[in-house]
């Protein structure tokens, strides 16, 4: 399996797409800043999951514990930088939007992890427990 296929199989785009749709509905029905924030948070969660999956694949391919840890840490700093800059921009626009983005990010991230576990993760864990 290529790294791209592995990454996309872990980061299900349907969950953040649902978050963006919910954000759009909230923007239309309740509040523009809250809806936009939820949509941005969902998109950031998807980006985070893509970057995380890519880091894991790259770290696994290094073959060296030190390099693998370095890849994971540098990737984490990159992810934090992207999310931090986006949060600063959202705070400059609207604090409500930034808070809604954080909520959208958290809910979407947890939902993506739950979907991964329910669809693929349980089989992977069960396969790992079997002795050859």
Structure described in brief:
Helix content is 90%, strand content 0%. The protein has helices at 3-10, 14-29, 32-62, 65-93, 95-129.
List keywords for this structure.
132 residues; mainly alpha; 5 helices; flat
Structure in words:
- The two termini are 22 Å apart.
- The protein has five helices and no strands.
- The chain has helices at residues 3-10, 14-29, 32-62, 65-93, 95-129.
- Helix 2 packs antiparallel against helix 3 (32-62), helix 2 runs antiparallel to helix 5 and helix 3 (32-62) runs parallel beside helix 5.
- The chain is an all-alpha fold and 132 residues long.
Count the DSSP helices.
5
- Name the poorly predicted regions: none
Strand content: under 5%
The radius of gyration over CA amounts to 17 Å
Sheet with most strands? none
Topology of helices and strands:
Elements: H1 3-10, H2 14-29, H3 32-62, H4 65-93, H5 95-129
Helix pairs in contact: 1-3, 2-3, 2-5, 3-4, 3-5, 4-5
